[in-house]
Specification:
Pfam families: 2-Hacid_dh, 2-Hacid_dh_C. By secondary structure, the chain is of the alpha/beta class. The chain has twelve helices and twelve strands. It has two domains: 5-109 and 302-320, NAD(P)-binding Rossmann-like Domain (Rossmann fold), CATH 3.40.50.720; 111-293, NAD(P)-binding Rossmann-like Domain (Rossmann fold, 3-Layer(aba) Sandwich). The longest helix is centred in the C-terminal third of the chain and has 19 residues, at 302-320. The protein binds (2R)-2,3-dihydroxypropanoic acid.
């Protein structure tokens, strides 16, 4: 039996999320939804602060900063926050916990898409594909040359994974058939169960830096990992090594990365994430041939983005019913 619309819990959705997620919310008959009806511009902060007043639940994406100011603006009705992302560095977990607000997020459903894109970015960077297509169409393609556009191959290489979770494992599983010789990883503590899936050896941060031919960053952005990829790391890496980041831009010190790339301290970098996003087109990193920059698209497949929206919607509905969410963050 449907309750009168006006007595249903109020939900604010901060973005025009993919259709399946919106359908899940709308057809539940459980909530009344208000939506920032655009996918092209994020809801302006002032508008968001107004819109959240008195809502019971909020569905957001990673462009919204969920902090004390926003939670105060929402007020005591707010019981559930559901983010359509696996990352949660845009959320003040402490503030959410203090207010007893339950938090849903979207791990797992994006693992395949992110791992696939990470491999694509790694190969694009190591085999210099962007430079190569540019040369081919702008007249740089002369005779076949013996060392022209040479890069680095995965066969016989050592691949380092910084932050071994679901995504790191999925990346390694996809790279293994390229005849990688050895996987190594570092994390706050060894993760033997995950590591055994890909036969990876636990090493120190320094050892990972020194031994990796390819280094893939797959950790969460936390106060501990903020700018942990800095000159200290790059100076220990081989000058033939490739650095790949599909986690969060904040784990990298971009000035140090620029320095490492422009002086040949490392061979190349592939980034799907930067600070800020979008990265201004006049940013020095864009001037480097050995830096490939993508606009945060690792989870951008139709299947995955729809699955993320449905999971975020279901987390929210379950949370409002007081039931366990499918994917809930422990606060
Ligand atoms: C996430 O989910 O955190 C990604 O960055 C976007 O899919």
């Amino acid at each position: 039996v449907r309750r009168e619309m006006s007595s249903l819990p109020r939900v604010y959705v901060t973005r025009q999320i993919p259709p399946e997620g919106l359908k899940t919310l709308r057809e539940s008959g459980q909530v009344q939804c208000q939506l920032w009806d655009s996918d092209d511009v994020p809801v302006p902060r002032q508008e968001l602060l107004q819109r959240v007043k008195g809502v019971d639940a909020l569905l957001c994406v990673l462009t919204e900063k969920i902090d004390a100011e926003l939670l105060d603006a929402a007020g005591p009705n707010l019981k559930v926050l559901s983010t359509m992302s696996v990352g949660f560095d845009h959320l003040s977990l402490e503030e959410l916990k203090k207010r007893g607000i339950r938090v849903g997020y979207t791990p797992d459903v994006l693992t395949d898409s992110v791992a696939e894109l990470t491999v694509a970015l790694l190969l694009t960077t190591s085999r210099r594909l962007v430079e190569a297509t540019h040369e081919a169409k702008t007249g740089g393609w002369g005779t076949w040359r013996t060392l022209w556009l040479c890069g680095y191959e995965l066969a016989n290489s050592t691949v380092g994974i910084f932050g071994l979770g679901r995504i790191g494992v999925a990346i390694a599983e996809r790279l293994a058939p390229f005849k990688v010789k050895k996987f190594i990883y570092t994390d706050v503590a060894p993760r033997p169960e995950l590591a055994s899936l890909i036969n990876a050896e636990y090493v120190s941060f320094d050892e990972m830096a020194k031994r990796s031919d390819f280094l893939a960053v797959c950790c969460a952005l936390t106060p501990e990992t903020k700018e942990i990829c800095n000159k200290d790391l790059f100076s220990k890496m081989k000058n033939t090594s490739i650095f790949i980041n599909t986690s969060r831009g904040g784990v990298v010190n971009q000035d140090d990365l620029y320095e490492a790339l422009s002086t040949g301290q490392i061979a190349g970098a592939g980034l799907d994430v930067t600070v800020p996003e979008p990265l201004p087109t006049n940013h020095p990193l864009f001037t480097l041939k050995n830096c490939v920059i993508l606009p945060h698209i690792a989870s951008a497949s139709f299947t995955t983005r729809n699955a993320m929206s449905v999971l975020a919607a279901n987390n929210l509905l379950l949370g409002l019913r007081g039931e366990p969410m499918i994917k809930e963050l422990k606060l």
